[in-house]
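Entry type: protein chain
Record version: 2
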Amino acid sequence: MLNAIQGTPHAEERPRGASRSRHDIDAANARGRWQLPIIACLQALPLAAVFFLFFVVPVVLVVVVSFCGYETYRILIPDFTLDNFRDVFSESVTYRTYLITVKLCAIVWTVTALLGFLLAYFLAFQVRSRTWQTVLLLICSIPFWTSIVIRMIAWIPLLGRNGLVNRALLEIGAVNQPQEWLLYSEFAVIVGYVHLYTLMMIVPIFNSMMRIDRSLIEAATDAGASTLHVLRTVVLPLSKTGIAIGSIFVVAMVMGDFVTVDVLGGGQVASVGKQIATQLSYLQFPPAAANAIVLLLAVITMIVLLVRVVDIRKEL
């Protein structure tokens, strides 16, 4: 009986001891769950600060300026007004400029997507050596080692009235006189865009193709599929993530570019980016800010539609 009475506290103490142990484990797990978000937030803090300073703050400033008034001798009037946006949507030249810009964007996207896909396919499946793949990608990136202005000016001796292309056409008898449309035209602007942004298509498509399991292609080939059929049914669907990412880069860059239009367009080609740059040169900051906001919304809309076709987050 005494042993039973003496054993009772020990029997009761063990559950309490076990209870305290479970409590300590739960507390430690809770502390661990709190520490992980804190560490993750600290790791993301530098990038978040850079994003806030160099993206959020400038966009907010542009939005604020777009609602300000302006006069000839007063650059900004701190007064809330919708006149800048009203002028943007009430002028027919705005719609014509956007149509021209969208047309250029569609042509450039088509050409760069085709070239980017073919070149990426060659690098990923025809070049077996990783070393040569790296070397060829570096060769593709050589034009980016110089200024964009220098790269665009380099096309003038080629496409000009007395340039190499016209001389070659005259010598072979393809034309009777120099072709003026080769330079300072939409054609020249498209050539410059393709030159600039094809690499932005090659790299993401190449990365997507390198992730394709080669056994799938071998299985399709063993089943009797032709090269074109393999491209259409295997390679192309599995490369759509890279195509979507490259398309976002190309669309965003072409819609806002004004240097290429200025150098190769020669004042003969209109674009939204060129219109904004012209307004800034005349110190018309509020109208330029309003145009920039409209352009930003247009680009975001195009990117959202593109992402709805290909779920980049799911594919990655």
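Comment: The chain has two domains: 1-66, 90-315.
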